[in-house]
Amino acid sequence: MPEATAASSTTISRPRKRIVVGMTGATGAILGIKMLATLRRLDIETHLVLSHWAEATIRYETDYTPANVRALADHVHSNRDQAAPISSGSFRADGMIIVPCSMKTLAAVHAGYCDDLIARAADVMLKERRRLVLAVRETPLSEIHLRNMLEVTRAGAIICPAMPAFYTKPDSIDEMVDQMIGRILDLFDVDTGDFQRWNGLEKE
């Protein structure tokens, strides 16, 4: 009887969530930076890949350096390293977020053109039927952009444009970024607790 009691009190620990984060050269570097900071706060393991132009955009748009951004991730992989663990389907992950996602990267994902690690890791997510979220950044959109978005959606990806909500009446860019990060992570069933959700209009 004592043995049965001891066995029943054993706690089964769940594996730590693991998400791949790709950052490309589209405008909106702060979205990727805040995504990494949020995932670190939530104790979610991150594998980061920065493109060459992501590094340039980080320097231009923010006070961060690429080294500062890499320090926010648990693991960092070179975009040229096609032998990285995340390039294989045998590497278990809960999904991938490309934030911000350039139209060039969108096109590569659509074509299955795995010329760099970001595109290859995204291709792995699609073939393994894992969650792939593309936070695309571009305006206006050409027919080519729209076709690429439609085709990757049909292939299983989720297009989640970085579009701020105004019903929250944000007082700062930080609040707008928090809301966008929260909405993206909702797609992974992760609640950041960092933004105001829509609860309907107040009745007079």
UniProtKB/TrEMBL annotation:
<feature type="binding site">
    <location>
        <begin position="102"/>
        <end position="105"/>
    </location>
    <ligand>
        <name>FMN</name>
    </ligand>
</feature>
<dbReference type="InterPro" id="IPR003382">
    <property type="entry name" value="Flavoprotein"/>
</dbReference>
<dbReference type="InterPro" id="IPR004507">
    <property type="entry name" value="UbiX-like"/>
</dbReference>
<comment type="function">
    <text>Flavin prenyltransferase that catalyzes the synthesis of the prenylated FMN cofactor (prenyl-FMN) for the ferulic acid decarboxylase FDC1. The prenyltransferase is metal-independent and links a dimethylallyl moiety from dimethylallyl monophosphate (DMAP) to the flavin N5 and C6 atoms of FMN.</text>
</comment>
<comment type="similarity">
    <text>Belongs to the UbiX/PAD1 family.</text>
</comment>
<dbReference type="Pfam" id="PF02441">
    <property type="entry name" value="Flavoprotein"/>
</dbReference>
<feature type="domain" description="Flavoprotein">
    <location>
        <begin position="17"/>
        <end position="187"/>
    </location>
</feature>
<keyword id="KW-0496">Mitochondrion</keyword>
<dbReference type="GO" id="GO:0016831">
    <property type="term" value="F:carboxy-lyase activity"/>
</dbReference>
<comment type="subunit">
    <text>Oligomer.</text>
</comment>
<keyword id="KW-0808">Transferase</keyword>
<feature type="binding site">
    <location>
        <position position="137"/>
    </location>
    <ligand>
        <name>FMN</name>
    </ligand>
</feature>
<keyword id="KW-0285">Flavoprotein</keyword>
<feature type="binding site">
    <location>
        <position position="183"/>
    </location>
    <ligand>
        <name>dimethylallyl phosphate</name>
    </ligand>
</feature>
<keyword id="KW-0637">Prenyltransferase</keyword>
<feature type="binding site">
    <location>
        <position position="167"/>
    </location>
    <ligand>
        <name>dimethylallyl phosphate</name>
    </ligand>
</feature>
<keyword id="KW-0288">FMN</keyword>
<feature type="binding site">
    <location>
        <begin position="25"/>
        <end position="27"/>
    </location>
    <ligand>
        <name>FMN</name>
    </ligand>
</feature>
<feature type="binding site">
    <location>
        <position position="51"/>
    </location>
    <ligand>
        <name>FMN</name>
    </ligand>
</feature>
<dbReference type="GO" id="GO:0106141">
    <property type="term" value="F:flavin prenyltransferase activity"/>
</dbReference>
<protein>
    <recommendedName>
        <fullName>Flavin prenyltransferase PAD1, mitochondrial</fullName>
        <ecNumber>2.5.1.129</ecNumber>
    </recommendedName>
</protein>
<dbReference type="GO" id="GO:0005739">
    <property type="term" value="C:mitochondrion"/>
</dbReference>
<dbReference type="InterPro" id="IPR036551">
    <property type="entry name" value="Flavin_trans-like"/>
</dbReference>
